[in-house]
Amino acid sequence: MATNDKKTFEENLTDLEAIVARLERGDVPLEEALNQFQAGIALSKDLQKTLTEAEKTLTKMINEQGQVVAFDTSDAN
Length: 77
Prior knowledge:
By secondary structure, the protein is mainly alpha-helical. The protein has one domain. 64% of the residues lie in helices and 0% in strands. It is rod-shaped. The two termini are 26 Å apart. Bidirectionally degrades single-stranded DNA into large acid-insoluble oligonucleotides, which are then degraded further into small acid-soluble oligonucleotides.
């Protein structure tokens, strides 16, 4: 599978859903199923990383009192 760096979160999620659907049908040869499973795991890790980073960004934007604070997006990394 090609690199996921250029795809959006939504595109990667759609790809993962397609992999899951193929595997759930059960009509995929074993070797292909293993390759698809491995690709799905990689996509899942990428998606989780994106969600974790988004959560950290949101947490930085809201202070302890629940007030939105000024946030410089250059500090997101």
